[in-house]
Protein: 2,3,4,5-tetrahydropyridine-2-carboxylate N-succinyltransferase
Organism: Corynebacterium guangdongense
Amino acid sequence: MSVHSAPAPTPTPTTASARGLATITYDGTVLDVWYPAVKVDEPITESTTTRLDEAPQQFVQLVGPDEERGVARVPVLTEIADLSAAPTDAYDVYLRLHVLSHRLALPGQVNIDGSRDILAKVVWTNYGPCAMADFQMVRGRLAGKGPVTVFSVDTYPRMLDYVVPEGVNVIDSGRVLLGAHLAEGTCVTESAFLLPGTGSAAAVTIDRRLEPGEVLG
């Protein structure tokens, strides 16, 4: 297996935009953002912004408060004018992670420096992201709906909960975090671990932890 910097696609994407759905606590902390359809290098009419907007039709049934988790799900529109500049907030970080996992850019082409410091630490459960504060009370409320499973406590979520790229095999979903880039034909074994900004540029088997910025292929 060779390890090297993969050749960059031409042209390298410079902008990104997407409508999404954010999970926000009542004090305004962003727990996550899901962007199902991401666009790169399409005209952006404003400088980098994040704002609430009317929900797209497919989000209408998902928008609103979740009293058990103590959060609200709100529609957002996020635009990034320069993917080479450092991220500015949680909406910005999540869009960059989606760009990578949707294979719209290779690791190294999107600046995610400082993203861990920007994002909140989250309790990732089978009912969705929850705030760490008073989680035992949240667990008690959720338990009325059924067993509560905590997948992890971390700043980054599992990639496959947000993006499932075609043509890949992932043995354990907890081994690949959002922001990893998996080329078609990649197999991720139970011994691997992929952070944001790591991954594959060709069809390979990944069977170990990749170091930050490392790309196989």
About this structure: Helices lie at 90-101, 115-118, 135-143.
